[in-house]
Inverse folding.
């Protein structure tokens, strides 16, 4: 056995080998050591190899999926080795014969299909990147849904595209492994290197033709050599991991970079589109807006949010769909309730195609089609916008398949086909007979006994059973002659007082009864295969239905969001406008609402009279929130959603760039400032005149004048060279003078109010410039010790005075500053003059007042307030 294990393990050196041993998958040698540590299970030993103990651990087959998930998440790959014959068959070859085993599947992050291993509301992409001469392309597939896409890209765009797709695994040529490892791992994906032959574009074309059973790929699109290479590499890897059982893949869809808003990896992270900065879904824009009720709808929402459209007609069609659902509240409500009962059709089809499905996947298809037909019927007389009308058209035409599945399947089937019991009574006569025999064997024998009693006239005749003879007819010796005279009864055995016979029908019935249970299971397995084949024969139409259900779900979900949160339909066109009235940040607004606090809405106007807003104001006043909310409104508008504002006019944004916040990158030797400069350089080198750029505190990681000069030059470059729309937040108040020199720059500030030495944030953006940053007051709010705050005020006053009086005076003042004291001399408390209202309040005693007196006092206070 161990020789067989070592031989199979040698074929998969980079994977843990799950070696089937009866009811367990067992691991040996180094695999066992690694798995026991990763899974926190006991490590034991089994025998010796080269005089060394063989380390061993194992996991039960029935719960293997949970262990697989843990291993995959920890970066392992697993080769699943199954027993390919019954142990009894192996023994026929000799007592020491080893059961034949084969690896039936290589489990990797991008090739998961099991429901328990996947997130229902997220895609699980496997991607492949290829370069052929001066061309490059990226292909990606989700084998759990059949989605297959490809796009030509420039090599520099690989990182941003991986950030958009967030694949679990990326396949590259071994010749490019070293060059691409950093880019792939930064995206969070697992890297798989294949031989160069897997990327040969000629072989790739043949593989794709064979996969889709076509003579030419022209019907799918005009693919370049790099695109063919990337798609072919994916198919090659699927053949390796699935051991020839290829999933059902839809025809490849060719995407173009010009059709979607370009967003780089840093911007996606900064804006927290689909993941928060902590890496979780909670706290992201996606989590804040997701009101879908189906898994397919949730995946479609994430795709749309990750890839906002730049095609005007597409955005407007999606807005029309949301507008319809918003206006037709009753229809949308009924539709939403029907969609709640729709199972995950995409993934059920995928599991059936890979022969990893079960009876519940058959019923998932049936239930999905039942709801699809009902939805189509309910909307048949409704005038729908184009997008929804097309979706409803794809819901229909499954009557024959639905009728077959309705007749064939029970309402609540078991998980596994081998358990039986999922085929409905009355669908198959032979199956019904087997079940009757299995469940009512005694009754069938009793019926035959009565029949034989009538035929022979012997009322004492009995049909009995034992382990030697099986079923037999028994009469007393006095009736033996009568039985011998009937040719239908064959003598079996004579005892002292009884004579036993059998008949051909009784022997046949005995065989049927004894085999009825097993035969029923075999018939159900056969019917399962035929029903799966019937479903897979129309998989293309079923995938279209799944897409239609997701489209309907997303439209009504976005309408529900717009209704519940008071969002408006944006006006979109190809201009450079970004005019927002009463804009809000959807994530921050939800967080404040949960605390009972209101969100202060703000306006923004770019691309008309001015392209750039230079935003000043203190920390904590809301500058970063204002920057982000306008970027998110553009993303939402172009993905097809309504937006959090009173009104919005969005000219199509080609590229979205964000330089907000910073962290160092120690692994690559980059300081916080270096990271900031790299990201700023990318913006200045790439932004076109339809881009939207949001920049926050450029130049803060270096000396004051260095930072100011960098921020100054950056703003000038955005204005003069890039010519794009931008929101530029800064604490360098010196820059506010640029609004007089650059015609398309406007100053704006976040308003605050100072009260008795403290700062009150109003979170209101106004035209104009801030006169100061209020940094010391913010530090006080943060909880700095009073001594530090007082010292900071003294230093600040000295520096400001020195700045006014000139450089030498500034130096002299700093030299004259007293040293820091942990307990500084307390400044005299400001004398506050008592107001007339305070004096009146002192004379009021509420417990002693009548309601009329209290009301009168309130009127008097209001009058005093006016004066």
């Amino acid at each position: 056995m161990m020789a067989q294990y070592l031989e199979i393990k040698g074929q998969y050196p980079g994977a843990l080998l799950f070696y089937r041993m009866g009811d367990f998958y067992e691991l040996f040698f180094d695999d066992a050591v690694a798995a026991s540590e990763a899974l926190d299970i006991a490590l034991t030993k089994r025998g010796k190899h080269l005089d060394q103990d063989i380390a061993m651990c194992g996991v039960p087959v029935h719960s293997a999926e949970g262990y697989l998930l843990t291993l995959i998440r920890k970066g392992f790959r697993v080769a699943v080795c199954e027993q390919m014959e019954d142990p009894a068959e192996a023994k026929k070859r000799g007592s020491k014969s080893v059961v034949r085993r084969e690896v039936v599947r290589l489990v990797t992050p991008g090739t998961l299909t099991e429901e328990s291993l996947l997130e229902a509301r997220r895609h699980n992409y496997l991607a492949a990147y290829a370069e052929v001469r001066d061309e490059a392309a990226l292909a990606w597939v989700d084998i759990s849904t059949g989605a297959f896409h490809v796009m030509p890209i420039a090599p520099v765009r690989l990182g941003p595209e991986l950030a958009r797709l967030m694949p679990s695994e990326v396949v590259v040529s071994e010749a490019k492994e070293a060059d691409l490892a950093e880019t792939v791992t930064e995206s969070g994906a697992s890297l798989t290197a294949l031989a160069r032959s897997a990327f040969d574009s000629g072989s790739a074309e043949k593989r794709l033709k064979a996969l889709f059973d076509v003579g030419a790929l022209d019907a799918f699109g005009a693919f370049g050599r790099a695109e063919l290479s990337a798609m072919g590499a994916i198919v090659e890897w699927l053949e390796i991991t699935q051991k020839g059982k290829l999933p059902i893949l839809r025809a490849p869809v060719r995407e173009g970079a010009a059709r979607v808003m370009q967003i780089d990896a840093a911007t996606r992270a900064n804006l927290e589109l689909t993941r928060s900065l902590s890496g979780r879904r909670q706290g992201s824009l996606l989590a804040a807006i997701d009101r879908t009720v189906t898994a397919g709808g949730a995946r479609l929402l994430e795709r749309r949010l990750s890839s906002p459209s730049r095609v005007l007609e597409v955005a407007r069609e999606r807005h029309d769909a949301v507008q319809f659902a918003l206006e037709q509240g009753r229809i949308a409500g009924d539709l939403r309730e029907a969609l709640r009962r729709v199972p995950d059709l995409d993934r059920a089809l995928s599991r059936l195609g890979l022969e990893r499905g079960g009876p519940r996947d058959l019923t998932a298809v049936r239930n999905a089609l039942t709801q699809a037909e009902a939805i189509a019927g309910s909307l048949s007389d409704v005038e729908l916008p184009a997008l929804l009308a097309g979706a409803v058209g794809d819901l229909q035409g499954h009557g024959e398949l639905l009728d077959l599945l309705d007749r064939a399947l029970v309402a609540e089937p078991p998980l596994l086909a081998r358990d039986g019991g999922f085929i409905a009574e009355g669908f198959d006569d032979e199956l019904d007979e087997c079940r009757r025999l299995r469940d009512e064997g005694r009754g069938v024998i009793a019926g035959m006994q009565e029949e034989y009693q009538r035929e022979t006239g012997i009322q004492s005749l009995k049909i009995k059973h034992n382990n030697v003879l099986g079923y037999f007819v028994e009469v007393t010796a006095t009736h033996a002659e009568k039985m011998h005279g009937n040719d239908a009864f064959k003598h079996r055995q004579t005892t002292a007082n009884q004579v036993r016979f059998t008949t051909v029908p009784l022997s046949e019935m005995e065989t049927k009864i004894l085999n009825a249970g097993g035969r029923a299971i075999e018939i159900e397995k056969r019917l399962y295969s035929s029903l799966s084949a019937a479903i897979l024969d129309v998989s293309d139409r079923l995938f279209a239905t799944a897409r239609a259900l997701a489209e309907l779900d997303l439209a009504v979900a976005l309408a529900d969001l717009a209704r519940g949160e008071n969002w408006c339909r944006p006006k979109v066109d190809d201009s450079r406008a970004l005019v927002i009235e009463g804009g809000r940040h959807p994530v921050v607004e939800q967080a404040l609402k949960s605390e009972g606090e209101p969100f202060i809405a703000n306006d923004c106007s770019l691309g008309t009279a001015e392209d750039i807003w230079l935003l000043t104001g203190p920390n904590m006043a809301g500058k970063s929130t204002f920057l982000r909310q306008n970027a998110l409104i553009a993303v939402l508008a172009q993905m097809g959603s309504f937006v959090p504002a009173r009104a919005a006019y969005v000219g199509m944004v080609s590229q979205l760039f964000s330089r907000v916040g910073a962290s160092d990158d120690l692994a690559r030797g980059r300081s916080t400032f270096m990271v900031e400069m790299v990201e700023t350089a990318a913006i200045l080198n790439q932004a076109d005149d339809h881009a939207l750029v949001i920049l926050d505190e450029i130049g803060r990681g270096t000396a004051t004048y260095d930072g100011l000069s960098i921020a100054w030059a950056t703003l000038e470059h955005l204005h003069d060279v890039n010519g794009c729309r931008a929101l530029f937040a800064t604490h360098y108040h010196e820059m506010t003078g640029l609004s007089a020199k650059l015609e398309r720059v406007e100053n704006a500030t976040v308003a605050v109010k100072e009260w008795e030495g403290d700062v009150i944030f109003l979170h209101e953006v106004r035209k104009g410039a801030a006169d100061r940053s209020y940094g010391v007051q913010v530090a006080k709010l943060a909880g700095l010790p009073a001594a530090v705050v007082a010292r900071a005020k003294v230093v600040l006053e000295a520096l400001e005075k020195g700045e006014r009086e000139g450089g030498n005076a500034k130096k002299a003042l700093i030299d004259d500053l007293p040293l820091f004291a942990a307990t500084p001399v307390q400044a005299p408390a400001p004398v506050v003059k008592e107001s007339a209202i305070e004096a009146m309040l002192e004379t009021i005693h509420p417990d002693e007042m009548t309601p009329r007196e209290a009301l009168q006092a309130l009127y008097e206070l209001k009058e005093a307030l006016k004066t």
About this structure: Confidence is low (pLDDT under 50) at residues 809-814.
